[in-house]
Amino acid sequence: MTVSGVRASARIVARADGRGGTALPVLEGxxxxxxxxxxxxxxxxxxxxxGAMSGPLGGDEFAVRAxxxxxxxxxxxxxAATIALPGQxxxxxxxxxxxxxxxxxxxxxxxxxxxxxxxxxxxxTTRVVLGTGARLVLREEQVLGRADEQPGRLTSRLxxxxxxxxxxxxxxxxxxxxxxxxxxxxxxxxxxAVGQLVVVRPEFGAGxxxxxxxxxxxxxxxxxxxxxxxxxxxxxxxxxxxxxEALACLG
Amino acid sequence: MSRAAxxxxxxxxxxxxxxxxxxxxEAAVKAGRITGAADLEEFCRGRLHTAGLVAASLAAAAxxxxxxxxxxxxxxxxxxxxxxxVAARKLGRQLMRAARAAWPSQELDAVAREFPKGAHxxxxxxxxxxxxxxxxxxxxxxxxxxxxxxxxxAVVRLLxxxxxxxxxxxxxxxxxxxRVADLAVEAGRGAVVEGVGALPAASxxxxxxxxxxxxxxxxxxxxx
Amino acid sequence: MHLDHTHDTTPAALGADARRPDxxxxxxxxxxxxxxxxxxxxxxxxxxxxxxxxxxxxxxxxDIYTCEDAEFLLREAVLPPERITAVETxxxxxxxxxxxxxxxxxxxxxxxxxxxxLDLILVESGGDNLxxxxxxxxxxxxxxxxxxxxxxxxxxxxxxxxxxxxLLVVNKTDLAPYVGxxxxxxxxxxxxxxxxxxxxxxxxxxxxxxQDVAAWVRAQLAAWTA
Lengths: 251, 224, 226
Description:
The structure holds 3 protein chains of 3 kinds.
Chain A: E1 7-16, E2 22-28, E3 34-41, E4 44-50, E5 61-68, E6 73-78, E7 82-84, E8 93-101, E9 106-110, E10 114-116, E11 121-130, E12 135-144, E13 153-162, E14 165-174, E15 193-200, E16 213-214, E17 217-221, E18 226-233, H1 236-249
Parallel strand pairs in A: 1-5, 4-6, 5-8, 6-9, 7-10, 8-11, 9-12, 10-12, 11-13
Antiparallel strand pairs in A: 1-2, 3-4, 12-15, 13-14, 15-18, 16-17, 17-18
Chain B: H1 3-10, H2 25-30, H3 37-63, H4 68-77, H5 82-102, H6 106-114, H7 121-131, H8 136-159, H9 163-194, H10 205-215
Helix pairs in contact in B: 3-4, 3-7, 3-8, 3-9, 5-7, 7-8, 8-9
Chain C: H1 5-9, E1 28-33, H2 40-51, E2 57-62, H3 68-75, E3 84-87, H4 93-99, H5 102-115, E4 120-124, E5 141-147, H6 154-157, H7 160-164, E6 167-171, H8 176-179, H9 183-194, E7 199-201, H10 211-225
Parallel strand pairs in C: 1-4, 1-5, 2-3, 2-4, 5-6, 6-7
């Protein structure tokens, strides 16, 4: 008997309501990708990803799409960490996120951690497409294994394009079956949490933000109005602290 | 193809600036992440499958005539550390100088003109390989090998590591070097059809973070 | 005639070409090498002070380990910071000035692009051993600096630096009585090694300081621009 995984998708469209606020004409989620609108502030709409089931499991295919239209402001978080678990069906799980931020729009994409549990196999893609003058704060955190557990296989690719130009294209592969050396001194050096923040602000200009550096964390101006904060840490808690501090540095 | 040209291009004595770069090894040694031959081997392995694969894919794609400007932008997107982008362009410029003397060609002159301060080194390497009559596989091998040989040479100087141990590390990695080069050629061919977005983007967070830490030091032996 | 045509279509210079891509004559490049502590940086600083009013000049340093020499020159304020560039040498200073000169060529070309036009660029080597010499692809002439305290047998030992440098400078002559160095013997040995090539004995603390070396540099420059 073949067991096929779950397919689930969620879609958000944020639109300026013409009165300084942001409406959500589309807010569709299902099963493990249920969505809930929460109280926003100022002109910003807020949405929570509420995982109704644990997952993704092996063979599952999740897709999330958010489009922030011109002049709208959206903040998306998640109610809890996402845990990649081994499933009944063979093959990797997929989790594809596509974010479009139109000219002059703003998106804060701040989900909780992705935890790669032992035996899981997940391929995540996050593709962000930004228009002129768009603003973005995107956080991505991966924790390799639950407490005292070996990690699963996890590959994550993050691509950020602005005005048709690819500003950032990075893929990290770790866990059993990943190309060797992933846990060695060039890549993760035994760290069990790794994460990044992408911050795009028109006022950054090309390389205008100075790179600052701490223990296991660097703020790196990209070749456009954007910076990447890259961090590694012993655990998820320390990782979050490092990313929060770096974000505070950016003002 | 000329096998001798390949040997020349891969020779550490080819005057293209590589001797002053450690491939992140100086930062890793200072941080205590490399203390001997075993760590060096794991370090090199990590480089092979990340920076090495990406560099070799760019080089292979350049040999296969994917446009240099697109490859250079793809290299930027795959190199978030500004310190590493600067190092890659410096090395690209230095390689271009040596190559224009060794294998004069209009194509090299054109790229030198378009990028007076240097294009990313792996992209230049691909263009140079073609000018030297070499193929995508040659360029990919060269790029992957450079991604580990520079670090191994630097660690010999930084830790006074036994040079025979360092050579042993490189020899043990040889089959993996070949495999990564093959993957890179595949990826380069893929980029011809699908564009540069199809090129690998394997990243190594500690190499990027370490490069930024290193760039902030007042006292260092290597340029990167 | 399209005078700027050359500029648009000629890529960067390859090596020691006397003309820049725009057709103008480039700056004269003089290398200063020699053992650690012999007074290379002090000589560079003194030369800058002696020549900066009459010439447009810049300095490239090649340190063994740090940017210390560049920082010394900056601290001493002998030149504005944009005229001083440091090149990293990956623990092998002689490689950067002789075997693989690409980083130094880039440094001298960038100085000319960014602060030029320049008359003279001094390229200072990191302190090295007696075999370290500059490539002819990098410099037009080289000065080898030794000092009396390093042992008065250095000229006798010879080596490529002592034997072939366009100018040999024996520095810190004021220390000779204290370290028991025999200046006459050093002069005779140098003469034997170098035949007609010039030797300058100098003390930067006493007498005419760097004036003899400065005069030699002026003569080189006159020949270069002739």
